[in-house]
Predict the 3D structure of the following.
Amino acid sequence: MTNRLIEGQSAIAGELAEADFGDIRLGRRLGTIAARLTAAPSAAFPQALGKGADLEAFYRFIRNDAVKFESLLQPHVTATVSRCAQDREVLAVHDTSEFRFGGVRKDLGRLGQSGRGFLGHFTLAVSADDKRDPLGTLGVETWTRTEKTPTALRREKQLEYVDVCHLPNEQDRWWRAIATAEQAVKGRTSLIHVMDSEADDYALMSKLVEDHLRWVIRLCYDRALAGVSRSEKTKEVVARARVLCRKKVHLSRRRRQPGGAKRPRTKVRESRLATLAMSASAVTFRRPSYCKDSAPSLSVNIVSVREVNPPRDEEPVEWLLITTEPIDDEQGILKVVDCYRGRWRIEEFFKALKTGCAFEKRQLDSKQTLLNALGLFVPVAWHLLRLRTAARSTQTIPAQTVLDDDQLLVLRRASRRPLPKRLTAQNALLAIARLGGHLPSNGDPGWQVLGRGYQDLLMMVAGYRLATGKM
């Protein structure tokens, strides 16, 4: 990773403080709020902001009609674009997450059978190299469900897709996010859009090809092909391709996910080193009957990834990746696979938001105030994710790229064990994790204990600066 890796607490507060509300007083108040939330991301608002006048000022700020989620987020997006511009190409990873809240909250929608909350579709910029450095957020779209979705109506009334395809569809969010990200970077870097199988949509892929954009999408549907027997579909044709290359990759641990126990890709697994066998095929999708406005056929490349000899009782990794990236040689095939592997960063980002920043536990009374809080926490969650990424890096990164001089000095004095003279980022962040309660026997530190330790370090640094007159 480069020395742009982590800008530190003051930089995060600075990104937030650049928001424009048309009132300089609101900007000043935001600067104070941002600094305190960054120092204590998982703390309840009364703990992070103090009681009395400061806490009351925070609630007035977050309920102010002039304060909008988009205005809070924009400075972080601008800073993200600047970081992206340092690279020739960047992954734009897209995904959606639900945000659930208990109690009575104004203007929230339904989630599932009984839940209440809203949904957010995020675009996270990630470096395209093997470091997969999270660079920040390029866009966020939020919405609530107040009516049944076209998919739910189709299943409930046993309708054909053509009967509901004219209705507003949440699937359209993928294209809007792609267009927003492209508009944000304005050609300052080349984006490779990476999406999971929910984005396997013929109309979406047709637009991507038409606009000459770069993309990798995991296949969901066994699509019909043009130019072959009508009985043959994508998976059968791809299965005949010979293996062209193999690669060993580390698969991360996967914990139990609510509602996902029956889906192979969401089952619990332990971390392991897996051997992946890869093949590639050029195919042409035939247009589905309901996509009358799209191209009649779509020429794409498919990269097939299968795990060789998985452990007993473990589901083998198997991906079919659709792309227009070149697959002419081993290097091209491996690049497509590595692009898709970068998608996991956004899942970690959601954990940073929900657990590291305790977003779903926030006691706010309306969708407006919750969205404004989300605008405050997005750059904080990104910062926590970068800390965690550095802690797990196999690269030798100087600690000075992660922490400033005061933070390093205080960390050395606070550490329960002597730290190396030439401190690396990994050494420093393991020491921070120990402040948060991490034990070596628990394996690599998660970002949650890293966040707690970082909070403690910032509090000690604030005390040091106050005592030495550096405040």
The two ends are 31 Å apart (CA to CA). Residues 367-391 form the longest helix (25 residues). Confidence is low (pLDDT under 50) at residues 1-9. The chain has 15 helices and ten strands.
